[in-house]
Prior knowledge:
Protein name: Beta-glucuronidase
Domain Glycoside hydrolase family 2 catalytic: 274-589
Domain Glycosyl hydrolases family 2 sugar binding: 14-177
Helix content: 10-25%
Enzyme class: hydrolase
Low-confidence stretches: none
CATH architecture of the largest domain: Alpha-Beta Barrel
Number of strands: 32
Largest sheet: 8 strands, parallel, barrel
Domain Glycoside hydrolase family 2 immunoglobulin-like beta-sandwich: 181-272
Amino acid sequence: MLKPRSTATRELVNLDGLWRFATATAVGERPWAGPLDTPLEAAVPASYNDLFTDSAIRDHVGWVWYQRLVRVPRGWSEDRVIVRVDAATHQGQVYVDDSLVAEHVGGYTPFEADITQYVSAGQEFRLTIGVNNELTNTTIPPGRITVTQDGCRKQTYLHDFYNYAGLARSVWLYSVPSVCIEDISIVTGLDGTSGTVEYEVETSAPATVRVRVLDASGAEVAASEGTSGSVRLEDVTPWRPGAAYLYELVAEIVDGDGETVGDTYAQPFGVRTVEVRGTQFLINGEPFYFTGFGKHEDTAVRGKGHDDAYLVHDFQLMEWTGANSFRTSHYPYAEEVMDFADRHGIVVIDETAAVGLNLAVEAGLTGAPQRPTFSPDTFNDETRAAHAQAIRELITRDKNHPSVVMWCIANEPSSNEEGAREYFEPLVELTRKLDPTRPVTYAAVMFATSDNDRIAELFDVLCINRYYGWYIATGDLATAETYMEGDLRGWAEKFGKPLIMSEYGADTMPGLHSVWDQPWTEEYQAAYLAASHRAFDRIEAVVGEHVWNFADFQTSHGIHRVDGNKKGVFTRDRRPKTAAHSLRQRWRELGGRKPSGEGS
Length: 600
């Protein structure tokens, strides 16, 4: 699915702004059948939960409705008209006037519908979008809905971040010609000083396709014909971490004589290779050491709503710290984020929304008897089918981004439990079939060790989440460092694969200080990270470190959290804690290279 772009043959209307808004309990059974009867308005893009003062809206479980009038530009009379929703968390329905035109399950990937038959150029129509935030044992991410004694529906879930919902990304109306380019796939390689570009163009009907490759100055450097093929770029400028260089593949549908262009679309791409060799992670044949963060799309008031100002500032802060990468924990981020990473040379581990496939964590937090994670009554074949669809949609959307160097198909699953291999093996095979060019990983939970993990051998890179010095050996950093090193050596010796510390961190209250190693203080967070780094530096197989988290973020209700998770090295409003300065000193010295510690 191509991202909507304005081209010589396509036009684009952004539908962001204030929409009428209501919960399902406040309107009738068919809210799309007429003007939405509500005094409320909600911003798009934004999560709706924190916009209003009414707690019933914040805690609502089920459908909410957005509505606005849209006018089709009068010049679109000969074109097809498409409505696109960049994300609806976690299920969406789209109505044009009284007609249902699109449905989608999955809260972080786009969907669209051809509405040409329902609208007329120059005329208005009523656009209504329903969004459902319900999570069950067969959704990705999973959850459970219960009914309280007073009859209220309550949503519980297994991920440790707030279940923000709504239209958190943009909504678009765009036009395409009747015969159009529907998708482009690009795979690049390096051959000495030359670059290779394999391409495939999908069209809505059989058509003659012409392809041109433009360099960053707009000069044509290669050309080809046909819906698939390859071109060679002499004296290529590769895409490198910290030194992004983008080409454009311009695909055109042309008539028989090649003079008239029926449709055109320009797809940016970078020429680079990714490879795992032994315990090394190579980009363009050179060892790469990941420095950066697990992040969240999370800001005050907006929730998970995309915001370009925060996008720019967050990348500036990452550059300031010396970070060269991040993981899209724990869901695909907005396409604008991926485009920005492409343009600025930031490396991305791209993750599905499969977080919470672990009922051992639920048992540990609630004290309830542990249920098996993988079973017909818990996470089952239907769950795996939803998970597979999430993988398909992630790769379909992000396959052409040079910044994306690896697919992460799950965060902290119960990989040590019976049934884990049967659940994950088909998903790993699917991921490799969809994209054989990128390594595949998952992030291992604390309960999964090198001795009991059942799925590690299926993956190319092992991402390890560990909190020695916080949840284990709290306040005892000497013991924590010993535990960390022993744990990592176990993984390295058994599997012989690259290891990335995908999560490690300590909750920290900004402004809390102490001369002792006292948890929650800024000094303790910095000392905790330093102890972890000493352990990493002694393990040759460790090829990266992603601190949890970039910034403080909101979580669900719970006595173990005070106004959210405080493991950020920046506050939720992006002010640095002491640890941010410590990381800056370390990462700027490393410059994307493996530390030269003992054993490396």
